[in-house]
Specification:
It is built from two helices and twelve strands; from the N terminus they run ααββββββββββββ. The protein has 177 residues and is α+β, with helices and mostly antiparallel strands. The chain is elongated, with a radius of gyration of 27 Å.
Length: 177
């Protein structure tokens, strides 16, 4: 007399599947490298700063009132904030321009996702503005020179230079690394 024993089913048990998922999870935590987001942050801030400088230049030409950027929160040329402002005839910033999207003062702070980003500038007085023709200046009677027309956005080992062309006011982003 032969006995029929039930055949074992092919596959994994629930306990085996849970153990495999746990092992994969642990390996994922330790095996995946931590991705450095500072390069993307630097590129994003450099693009925004370029657009904001071009906006200030356009406002200066459109309104016939000098507009520019004023950096603040600076220590040794490394700044953590900038604002777009109107400048008076003496080349001094007066009121903050209004952000066309929010209607609030046009202030950009390196906080939140950009809290590690530093704005390094060689601009005299940490400012640059444009007159009604779009020509750049750095302060009362202070024109930009090739040595004083740079802004570098940096975080960690990443940086992205911007230059303001002395004669034309063209804002040129450099190659980000």
């Amino acid at each position: 007399m032969q006995r029929d024993f039930p055949r074992p089913q092919a596959g994994f048990t629930l306990i085996e599947l849970v153990i495999i998922i746990l092992i994969i999870g642990v390996l994922t935590i330790f095996a995946l490298p931590k991705f450095d987001q500072s390069g993307a942050q630097v590129a994003a801030v450099a693009k925004k700063l370029t657009e904001d400088l071009r906006y200030a230049q356009g406002r200066a030409v459109a309104t016939q009132i000098p507009h520019g950027v004023v950096f603040s929160g600076c220590t040794g040329g490394n700044c953590t904030q900038y604002r777009i402002a109107e400048f008076d005839a003496a080349g001094m910033p007066t009121v903050s321009a209004k952000d066309p999207l929010t209607g609030q003062d046009f202030v950009v702070e390196m906080t939140g996702p950009f809290d590690q980003v530093i704005l390094d500038t060689t601009l005299p007085n940490q400012q640059a503005y444009f007159d009604w023709t779009g020509s750049p200046f750095a302060g009362p009677g202070v024109t930009l020179t090739a040595a004083t027309n740079a802004i570098t956005v940096q975080a960690g080992v990443h940086n992205c230079p911007l230059t303001i062309t002395v004669t034309t006011g063209l804002i040129t982003p450099g190659s980000c690394s």
